[in-house]
Write a structure and sequence with these properties.
The protein has four helices and seven strands; from the N terminus they run ββββαβββααα. It has 190 residues and is of the alpha+beta class. Strands 4-1-7-6-5 form a five-stranded antiparallel beta sheet, with helices on both faces. The radius of gyration is 17 Å and the shape is globular. Keywords: Signal.
């Protein structure tokens, strides 16, 4: 089960030093990992979830920067199929009450991450990210100059309902993917 999806702009080096990462879009799925705990104050619960997402975003940013500093990192534009991908685990209590696995993919200056249960199929998680990334970025129009993810939350919700319903990763056939691409107006590379 996918617990959360995080889309973030990777921070970079700026004139005033390193810029922090910025969460552009985040969605939680299913019941919170702390559902066994007594119900807390809704404002406190929302703040806790925001901190969990921020902690994941910071860790993904660190992983992407480490990979980017590698001598084997390609400098030319990367296709979605060859985009850098990684996996790491967060131990219990850091920041989730239970251990989680985070899978991520970097596309240009953006990263998309899935926070999964530790027993989740990592091959399916990578395939889901590679299929989700171009469609998510296209539906949010993040590949357009001056785009703003905050202006298109309904597009993100609609896409996630189809590709990641209630946090469940799906084995999708090529016909389904092609039909969805036609609806979204995504040109498929051959």
């Amino acid at each position: 089960m996918v617990r959360a999806l995080v889309l973030l702009a990777l921070g970079g080096e700026g004139p005033a030093g390193p810029a922090p990462c910025r969460v552009l879009c985040a969605r939680s799925f299913g019941t919170p990992l702390s559902a066994r705990d007594p119900p807390a104050d809704p404002a406190r619960e929302r703040l806790r979830r925001q901190e969990q997402i921020a902690a994941v975003a910071r860790q993904v940013t660190t992983q992407c920067h480490l990979l980017r500093s590698s001598p084997h990192f390609p400098t030319d534009p990367i296709s979605f199929q060859n985009a850098p991908y990684g996996v790491f685990q967060l131990p219990p209590g850091d920041p989730f009450p239970e251990r989680v696995t985070v899978t991520w993919i970097q596309v240009m200056a953006l990263a998309l991450a899935l926070v999964c249960d530790p027993q989740e199929n990592l091959t399916l998680a990578e395939l889901t990210l590679r299929r989700l990334a171009p469609r998510f970025l296209a539906s949010l129009r993040l590949l357009d100059p001056g785009a703003n993810a905050l202006l298109h939350p309904d597009a993100a919700d609609g896409l996630l309902e189809r590709l990641l319903p209630q946090g469940e990763m799906l084995f999708l056939n090529e016909g389904f993917i092609q039909g969805m691409d036609r609806e979204l107006g995504i040109k498929r590379s051959r």
